[in-house]
Design brief:
This protein is mainly beta. It has one domain. It is globular and about 40 Å long.
Length: 102
């Protein structure tokens, strides 16, 4: 698991401080559904835009959860540059939608 620490001091002695953001991809059995969710939402991104941060909903043990993908318009369609998520729950929730165009 790769972690990007957003705060300089992240030791176990720091109570209540978030431990950072994980950049884990979806597990293999969920990858096709995650990519389909990203592709469907990227249809809303204008052709002149570079890309978007795209919400990818999952079914977690405590209800819905959201991870994300960083996607761009590539020469052959949507290209996913990276994933933002720590755990991916028990499946992709295609009802969750959200994009931030850049």
């Amino acid at each position: 698991m790769s972690i990007l620490n957003l705060i300089p001091s992240l030791t176990p002695a720091d109570p209540g401080i978030p431990r950072g953001v994980a950049f884990n991809p979806p597990p293999p059995h969920m990858m096709a559904d995650a990519i389909a969710s990203v592709n469907a939402q990227m249809l809303q991104v204008p052709p002149g835009a570079r890309g978007a941060i795209v919400a990818v909903g999952t079914y977690g043990p405590n209800g819905p959860a959201i991870n994300a993908a960083i996607a761009v318009h590539g020469p052959f369609g949507t290209q996913i540059e990276g994933w933002i998520g720590k755990s991916w729950g028990q499946g992709i929730n295609a009802e969750v939608k959200g994009i931030k165009v850049f």
